Amino acid sequence: MRRASAALALAAFVLACSSPPPPEDPGPSHPGEAWWSWRAQQLGIAPGAARERDAALSTAEPPNALWGPALRREAAALWRDRCASCHGPRGRLQGVPPPGQGPPPRAFGGMGLAMGFLFGGDAMRAGFYRRIATATDAEGSSTTMPAFGGTLSHEQIWALVFFIEEL
Questions:
Q1: What global pTM score does this model have?
Q2: d(C-alpha 131, C-alpha 19), whole Å
Q3: pLDDT tens-place string over residues 50-62
Q4: CB pairs under 8 A, 24+ apart, for 27-35?
Q5: In the chain, where are the structural domains located?
Q6: What is the pLDDT of residues 64-103, one digit of tens each?
Q7: Of 142, 145, 165, whose CA–CA distance to 67 is shortest?
């Protein structure tokens, strides 16, 4: 039993240390209507089909075949444009003052987050999705973070969840 626990801890450590760093210059993010044109072009489909595809994504369970280089760059750009002002460029709050009200923003990265994703799996990913989309915690209470569900697509929010998992 000890050997299995040690092997699992070692695997989590390797996973946490082996994730690639975010792209240094991901380029522009695609807010609002620009997203549908950009994503449709990436997928080789019409913008309406991109909307339908996005609407069909679950908000409670991460999509299996979503993460790729183009969406990773989009997530890095979204992080830079929407998240880094509070959470820091690499999710570690370095040089970023907390907002004036409420608790400070959460720092990401490190072994705790990696272990959470390893053991929490899709339930943890769904919790991050909910927090980004609705700005509520597991109990349904509001947080100081703004809700992005009205301004980002389901796919963009999932991309941010996967991006956070790599921090």
A1: 0.74
A2: 23
A3: 999 999 988 888 8
A4: 27/73, 27/77, 28/77, 29/74, 29/77, 29/78, 29/80, 29/81, 29/82, 30/74, 30/77, 31/81, 31/151, 31/152, 32/151, 35/152, 35/153, 35/156
A5: 2-166
A6: 767 788 888 999 999 999 888 888 887 776 655 555 655 6
A7: 165
